[in-house]
Amino acid sequence: LQRSMSYKVLEGNVGYLRIDSIPDQEVLSQLGGFLVTHVWRQLMGSSALVLDLRHCTGGHVSSIPYLVSYLHPGGTVLHVDTIYNRPSNTTTELWTLPQVLGERYSADKDMVVLTSGHTRGVAEDIVYILKQMGRAIVVGERTKGSALELQKLRIGHSDFFLTLPVSRSLGPLGGGSQTWEGSGVLPCVGTPAEQALEKALGILTLRRALPQIIQRLEEALKNYYTLVSRVPALLHLLANMDFSAIVSEEDLVAKLNADLQAVSEDPRLLVRAIMPRENSPKPEPGANEQLGTLPAVPEDEAARQALVKSEFQVSVLPGNVGY
């Protein structure tokens, strides 16, 4: 287990689980109690989970339902994939388990999966399933686009061998559409693999701050927005808004502005993210810090006229139209 997985709880109470090799279902069943007690239970109290599959290059199809089930809510079963095996000409459906040993990770908690160009095979299928379920934000690089199962065949009686895929994923419900094989899984947030964990923690920090951001926005609308009759609709919108796809401050600002302006019909209602500026110049002592303020009115009449001319242009147009 130490060679194939590791775990810890990071700053901000973020659980971190790294899996480099996925054992088959038989091994997982034998070690289930040990894994729940010594690994999974340590992560259950975390406020969010990072599943690191950047170095996961091998695994067994039989383990897919086992792993996905711990991240799927109880009470229902979900058809996650259909696998076709060419040598046996058989098709196998994969469903989440109705019961698991220990607890499932709460669906109300955020989850991020880290990927790299080395992530392949069964690990790719797990990433693809979690992404399609809407259960995880995928951060990192496009995965390898490998195959679920490879087989090495001797070519005749020669010393040459051919390695080729013998099983393929048909996708949920056996639709036969293109999945991740050959093309890989495209991340939700693309970033070099070595920076993926840092990027994921930044996303989780933003999502952890969302309730407080929305609360302050609601207070500002209730206390200051001049179109009072539209406030209840705006508050209802904020209370029911889906932020599952928010992975950056830019995403949050764009969504808030689009939805708030659509409900209020007010293009002046704007949300902005103000980034702190380091080493910004400080105003000189006595300088007027209020933007847009006119300069002081001079005492001299000529200077007053020059000031007025610099601020106003006055003329009478043809047709005796004042301008």
UniProtKB/TrEMBL annotation:
Under InterPro entries, the record lists: ClpP/crotonase-like_dom_sf, Tail-specific_protease
Q: Which domain of life is it from?
A: Eukaryota
Encoding gene per record = IRBP
CDD domains according to UniProt: Peptidase_S41_IRBP (cd07563)
Protein name (database record): Interphotoreceptor retinoid-binding protein
Q: Which Gene3D superfamilies match?
A: 2-enoyl-CoA Hydratase, Chain A, domain 1, 3.30.750.44
Keyword entries, A-Z: Receptor
- SMART domains the UniProt entry points to: TSPc
Q: Output the lineage of the source organism.
A: Eukaryota, Metazoa, Chordata, Craniata, Vertebrata
Q: Name one Pfam family in it.
A: Peptidase_S41_N
Q: Which GO terms of the cellular component aspect does the record hold?
A: cone matrix sheath
GO annotation (BP), single: proteolysis
Q: Which GO terms describe its molecular function?
A: retinol binding; serine-type peptidase activity
Ranges for the Tail specific protease domain? Answer: 1-192
